[in-house]
Specification:
single chain; mainly alpha; about 70% helix; about 0% strand
């Protein structure tokens, strides 16, 4: 995770700035939901050894 430190930092700063200025973040709740679905499908595929469709 070390290589993602700067990216995570930038995401956090963007999120905080969005709240402070009342600006819509560049990433939506739908983007976050899709990322979670992809992660869960990846884990299920890894455990089962089968393709998991979204």
């Amino acid at each position: 995770m070390q290589r993602y430190t700067k990216a995570f930092h930038n995401e956090l700063i963007h999120f905080i700035t969005s709240i402070q200025w009342g600006v819509k973040p560049s990433v939506s709740i739908e983007d976050g939901l899709l990322a979670m679905q992809i992660t869960e499908a990846s884990m299920a595929s890894l455990q089962s050894g089968k393709v998991v469709h979204l």
